[in-house]
Amino acid sequence: MAVRAARSAGFTAVLLLFLVLAGSAWTGDAHAAHNGTPTTQEDPDQHHGTNATNHRKAFPVLAFNYDHVRKPFEISLWILLALLMKLGFHIIPRVSHVVPESCLLIFVGLLVGGVIKAMDEKAPVLDSKLFFLYLLPPIILDAGYFLPIRAFTENMGTILVFAVVGTLWNAFFVGGMMFAVCQIEAARVGHVDLLSCLLFGSIISAVDPVAVLAVFEEIHINELLHILVFGESLLNDAVTVVLYHLFEEFSHAGTVTVGDAFLGVVSFFVVSLGGILVGVIYGVLGAFTSRFTSHSRVIEPLFVFLYSYMAYLSAEVFHLSGIMSLIACGVVMRPYVEANISHKSYTTIKYFLKMWSSVSETLIFIFLGVSTVEGPHNWNWIFVIFTLVLCLLSRVLGVVGLTFIINKFRIVKLTKKDQFIVAYGGLRGAIAFSLGFLLTDSEKKHMFLTAIITVIFFTVFVQGMTIRPLVDLLAVKRKKESKASINEEIHTQFLDHLLTGIGDICGHYGHHHWKDKLNRFNKTYVKKWLIAGERSNEPQLISFYNKMEMKQAMMLVESGSAAKLPSVMAAASAQNIQQQREEARQQKLLKISKTREAEIRKVLRANLQKTRQRLRSYSRHDLFMDPFEEDMSEVRFRKQKVEMERRMSHYLTVPAKRQETPSVRKVWFEPEHKVYTYDDSQSPRSGAIQLNPRPSDGAALLDGSPQGSESSAAPQSADQSERQKPSRCLSDPGPNEDEEESIFFSSR
Amino acid sequence: MGATQTRSGQEYQELAERTGFSAEQIRNLHKRFQQLSGNEDTISREHLKSIPALANNPIRKQIIEAFFDKRNQHGNELGSYEEIGFEEFLMVMSHFRPPTLRTTEEEKEAMRKEKVRFLFNMHDTDGDGKITLVEYRKVVEELLSKSGTIGQEAAKAIADAAMLEVASTNVPNMGPDDFYEGITLEHFEEILKGLEMETRMHVRFLDVSTTNVYCGK
């Protein structure tokens, strides 16, 4: 019932929004004519002296001046509409399971475009400048910054072959065959020459990263396939840029000579390598800057965003590949920046990137829909149908042919299923549309645009919708739920060294050898320059371990009852492991002051009373189980609270009483949702703390924990911890403090 | 390289069947073996230690030990050799073969078990079939040894945490006073399930039949 009410409320809201939007477009024009009226109304003083016939108007209490805010108003309205749409889809669960979000958004765009057209207004179109300069960079930056480096570099060869050779093949095949098609008399498109066809081919041949991301994110395919298709869509930008400019230049000139073709090849290398170089330079600059930001943590995220955006724009200045520049910048910057910035900044960067890319993506698809309705079309049956067929055909042929060659060099071969998914996942998207929009020749342009839009619609709708059932049908391997495991990390590193060693024994300078060399170079030279302070010496295993601890603590805060969590932190209470007891305990115990405890309880009470509904839709726009979302200090307080309680129950009670802790190894055992009442009358050091577990929910835990416990707990902890090392992590995380200090490692 | 002539094609064939390499690969590995051993028939630990590229490897000792470990010879013996011949060398190398397109699922499973077992043997230095905490700590210490002066504390904490993780995933209902003795092979396999050893643990060199043997020295 509530859902239906919400749904209808949502619909009415959306409808209202449509009307307001359309209305604003209309009133905006209407007011252009009446521009003079408001202003005269606003300054009666000036006028009443000059114009004797005008009698004095009353001071306007309320005036309407829309033009003043028109542009930002409309932009905000559009974005709001887009986001409301996104919300709306999730209220209707059945639809969002079948239809990918991108399709729904295009559909909405179509509707809006239709409404605006019905009102005979001019709709905002997906302007190329808007697209390339404002909408595309956030998406690419988001993808590049969080690119899985290991998978990417391991499959780099394959990705490059698909991106470069595959796109070239597509472009020439489609262009050439379309030219042949245009020669058919019945098509009436004989005026399209070879160069134009090749230009068209180069526009339509590139796999689009936005569309791929949008669709693949929802199907959770295994990492290999994801990185193959996605990596290809990123790296083919260089090819597209070169081909597009090449053919555009020459379609005016009319002919292409061999010299020009050679220059084209050279240009390809310049564009791609130049783009990467620009990105690397800005990345290093960004990393270097982040080294000094310890005093102004608040602006740290801005550096990341601005340097990356500058990298993109600088590359675009020289007609280099902006996308590759952006990716290179993000990849280079990330490890160093993350070692330098605070956790809050890291969270901010992550959130903002996801937010911007989400908004951008939504807007792109809606605008695509609107532009479809709006744009002048030139529908030519033969041209469009053949384009579609040829695109599909060339994609399939290209993938199959290239895989045949690639498999000779790959260790992990690509099976037929993999090939199918790669071919099927070659979606076209807004980049093709924008490139088409940039064309200058108007007659051919409209025909091309129509064909491009048709292909985009087909790939996004048909392929996008059917890929999920196909993946299920073919039982393609899905993404494995990655549970951060310290064992896996240890063995990943172990394997790296082992394979490097075996390779050295064989005398073969393989993949591992060069990776090892790069790592060592990184450690000895680069890290010293780009990472501040002592973090520059921290080995990866240790940073991983620290991160894991944080995550564990976060998971605890989130879930509450976590009897099954692998207890990473419980090294302290690992009484099952020999030789561990005393030294471990003493290492980990902390001294907690009374005021701290009061703060702890306040913070925890606030935490536990928040109920958050996590949407487990696995979209990259959702940040479920985000380990770094909370403030670090809260986490620490929480950990300490639990430590304290655990300490109480372990060390100060007689074992026989402890029924509620079946396993010592489990750090966050049942007492999480039980309430402890500390009896004041008990002496602090005796073993008889009365533990009264009351089955109550988490929110009551702290409400119920009586104020009396504060006074009794404090002396106990003070007593207990007198012998222990005081922790230095309980100081407030001020602006100067290195917030990455772990409570476990006192030596860095 | 006169010694190479004494190996007949027959022996290569037999070795190929036992280890799964092709004749070409065996020939190339034999060349390398000769290089390392200085044209003798056996290799000792010193020969392997003298490879300059290995000097920077934090787990060099373990790797070299693995070659001399009898458990890696697909037999049931324990202990270690003092010197190994080409056959033993090849057997150890065969653990690093990758699966091909034609490998069936059972074969892949068997491969994975074999590779995991190899890793297990590397960790379980005293050969009792269990990786104890002390042994695991040693592993982590060695991993961190070349990475700077982090100290024993970190290695201990990490190893402890890792042991705990193994214990909690494999033996979920341990009582508070139970004693987790060590990681057995089954537990080890369980925790490394996610890593897909059969595809990760391979050396590229051994896959392409027309190899480029770079003289690594």
From TrEMBL, chain A:
Keywords: Antiport, Cell membrane, Glycoprotein, Ion transport, Membrane, Phosphoprotein, Signal, Sodium, Sodium transport, Transmembrane, Transmembrane helix, Transport. GO terms for cellular component: basolateral plasma membrane. The keyword Chloroplast does not apply. The chain crosses the membrane at residues 99-119, 131-147, 159-181, 193-215, 227-247, 262-285, 320-337, 349-369, 381-407, 419-440, 446-471. GO terms for molecular function: potassium:proton antiporter activity; sodium:proton antiporter activity. It comes from the Eukaryota. It is found in: Basolateral cell membrane. GO terms for biological process: regulation of intracellular pH; sodium ion import across plasma membrane. Pfam families: Na_H_Exchanger (PF00999), NEXCaM_BD (PF16644). Residues 572-661 form the Sodium/hydrogen exchanger regulatory region domain. Residues 1-32 form the signal peptide. Residues 79-471 form the Cation/H+ exchanger transmembrane domain. Residues 706-719 have a biased composition (Polar residues). Residues 32-51, 677-748 are annotated as: Disordered. It is a multi-pass membrane protein. InterPro entries: Cation/H_exchanger_CPA1, Cation/H_exchanger_TM, NaH_exchanger, NHE-1-like, NHE_CaM-bd. Belongs to the monovalent cation:proton antiporter 1 (CPA1) transporter (TC 2.A.36) family. This is Sodium/hydrogen exchanger.
